[in-house]
Each structure stands twice: as C-alpha cells, then as structure tokens.
Amino acid sequence: MTSPQAPSPSHPLTSYGWNADLAAAFADHQAAGLQPARVVRVDRGHATAVTTTGTVRATTDQRAAPPCTGDWAALRPGPTPELAAVLPRRTAITRASAGARSHAQALAANVDTVAIAVSLAGRAAPGLVERLLALAWESGARPVIVLTKADLATTDPADTLAETADLAPGVDVLLTSTATGEGLDTLTAVLTGTVVLLGASGAGKSSLGNALLGADLLATGHVRDQDGRGRHTTVHRELLPLPTGGVLIDTPGLRSVGLQDTGDGIEQVFAEITQLARHCRFADCAHQSEPDCAVLAAVEDGALPERRLVSYRKLLRESAWAASRDDARLRARRTAERKAITRHLRATYEHRKPQI
C-alpha cells in the first residue's frame, strides 16, 4: 500500500485524512467548482459528509454505484447538495452480500487499519477470524486483532492470545478490556490513519470505539449475564474523528462474511500453507491427493493442523466462485461509474460556460 503524501496542516479536512495525493486527484473537480467532502454516513439514498465548511446531508446519484462510509467525494453545493462523484478508493473493505443474488458490498473505504474485534466472553470462532483477516488483507489495509472483554474471559486469555496469534501470522494480536482499561494504551499506539472496527455482533466494537474516542458517542447494549455477550447495537457505519489523530469507522456486527474475490488476502491469512506449497512437486498442486505434496505431508506429521487446510480450501473455493459469478457485473458497474463521472463533469462545465 502506497503511503499518502503529507497533508497540508492548514486544510480544514486534514483531521479527516485530506492530503496532497487527494488534492491532486481532486484538481479537475475543483476546477469545475465542486467541493471536497468525506462521507461519514450513508442511508436511504443520502449521504452525510463533512466538508471544508461543515457537515451536510447530500443526495447521491442513483444511477451510479453508491458511496460508502470513508469515501472522498466531489460535492456540488447549493440548496440541495449533491455528491457529484466519488474519488478513486485507495483501499476498500468489500464482502459478498447475503442472499442468492450476492454482489460486492463495500463496507468502508480508504481504510488504513482494520481492527478485528473478537470477544473473550465466549469461544472465538477460528473460521470467522480467518474470514475477517482475509477481508482486511485483501483491502490493502493493515489488520490488527483486538481480543475484547478480557475481564469476562471464559478461558485463560493468554491461551486464547496464543491460539489467535497462530491464526494470524504477521498480525498484531492485543488483549484489551474497556472495563479495566487493560491494553487500551497499546491499542491506541498501533492504530493509525482511518481505522475501521469489524467483528460479530456483541464483540464489543462500540464499547471499544467509545474508549478510543474518549466519549460515549456510540450506542452500546447491556451485557447478558449468562454468556457475557453484548447485544448488537450499531445499525449504520459511521465515521468519527479520533482525539489522538485519524478517524474511526464503527460498523454493524457482521452476521455473515461472504468473500468476494479475496484470493490474495486468503494467501496471506494462510501464509504457512503458501510457504509449504513452494516445496510441492507440482507448481499447481491443489493439496488434495497429489504425490510429494509438502502441505499434505505437514498435515500428516502434525506440523500443520488439518483444520487450517480445510478452512483454506473452503475459503479459496468460495472466493473463486464469487469472483467468476461477479466478473461481468463488476465490469459493467465500473463502466457505469466512469460514464457517470464524465457526465457530471460535462454538465458542470457546460453550466459554467459564459453566455455569449
């Protein structure tokens, strides 16, 4: 991921991530009289966006792909502000939507750090952690796993920390508790830029977000006595500035995490399998029943847990199926986006031409 250039400290949107790269990308829109804005929330065909003059509620073009929280956009000011175009996304958290007509759904854009919340008030599901890691790696952002509710842990937190670290090679895994403050200083130090919170319902994302924000700005639910789990409370993705710098995007709990063409992300999640595969006899080894397969040999001698290989195969199949199904639809959508941007710019320039 390319690091953005240093921002201008005098720009009103610097605290939201505005920088020299964005200014360069926005030059044509600025010449057309449009204003830069960052989307902080999207709902019902409208977007709430922060601009150089404050926060506005703007309409969105229903003919183009919808914006998502974290997007940078070109705003046409006026009595009814409109998001005329969305700037190219530097990174994006994208999953396959639920249902038979699944399609790519952007959860957050221009993200630098993905904080994956995993509650210790119950058993952490390895498969869900692996899926969320695949989404994070594929986006181009840096994942961090945050083990929450350490004060309510049902098993030894140190054991869960070690087990989770085994699932996430190259990823920081931190133990935290918003009730006691454990680990929050360390977490604050490793979160940079635009941070998105991902996790299942009741994982403690909103409580964690409030701790990072230094105020109770996100709604939280009560903890159930029987299992120590919180209730799902976040219903919108929302972007808020952090007091230590950067911004935070809180997201609703994910009941399903469908993968959408995340092959590269999966390879990073299962880095040990990727390394082993280099020693297989065949370069295209599928690690099923091929002779001299280093991956299968590692499973047989106990060096690689069989569960990891089963999960790896499953996620690759799911990702490949979604990619093949969505390829034509994705090309059509991108073409529509480009045409919409060109159409808006042409209309804007025509409107600004001097009348003879």
In short:
Zn(2+) binds at residues 280, 285, 287, 293. This protein is α/β, with parallel strands linked by helices and 356 residues long.
How would you describe what is shown here?
The protein has helices at residues 20-25, 27-31, 126-139, 157-167, 184-190, 205-213, 263-269, 271-277, 294-300, 306-352, and strands at residues 35-43, 46-51, 54-60, 72-76, 82-86, 92-96, 104-109, 113-119, 142-148, 172-175, 194-199, 238-241, 247-250. The chain is an alpha/beta fold and 356 residues long. α3 packs across α7 and α7 (263-269) packs across α8 (271-277). InterPro entries: G_CP_dom (IPR030378), P-loop_NTPase (IPR027417), Ribosome_biogen_GTPase_RsgA (IPR004881), RsgA_GTPase_dom (IPR010914). Zn(2+) binds at residues 280, 285, 287, 293.
Question: What's the topology here?
Answer:
Layout: H1 20-25, H2 27-31, E1 35-43, E2 46-51, E3 54-60, E4 72-76, E5 82-86, E6 92-96, E7 104-109, E8 113-119, H3 126-139, E9 142-148, H4 157-167, E10 172-175, H5 184-190, E11 194-199, H6 205-213, E12 238-241, E13 247-250, H7 263-269, H8 271-277, H9 294-300, H10 306-352
EC number: 3.6.1.-
Subcellular location: Cytoplasm
Domain EngC GTPase: 109-255
Question: CATH H level of the largest domain: which superfamily?
Answer: P-loop containing nucleotide triphosphate hydrolases
Strands in their spatial order, largest beta sheet: 10-9-8-11-13-12
What is the C-alpha radius of gyration, as a whole number of Å? 22 Å
What's the architecture of the largest domain in CATH terms?
3-Layer(aba) Sandwich
CATH hierarchy class name of the largest domain: Alpha Beta
Q: Tell me the span between the first and last alpha carbons.
A: 49 Å
Number of domain units: 3
Element order: H for helix, E for strand: HHEEEEEEEEHEHEHEHEEHHHH
What portion of the residues fall into strands of 2 or more residues? 15-25%
Number of strand segments: 13
Q: Per the principal axes of the C-alpha atoms, what is the gross shape? A: globular
CATH topology of the largest domain: Rossmann fold
Low-confidence segments = 1-7, 224-235
Structural class: alpha/beta
Largest sheet: 6 strands, mixed
Mean pLDDT: 84
Indicate the percent of residues in helices: 25-40%
DSSP helix count?
A: 10
Binding site for GTP: 148-151, 199-207
Cofactor: Zn(2+)
Organism: Streptomyces millisiae
Subcellular location: Cytoplasm
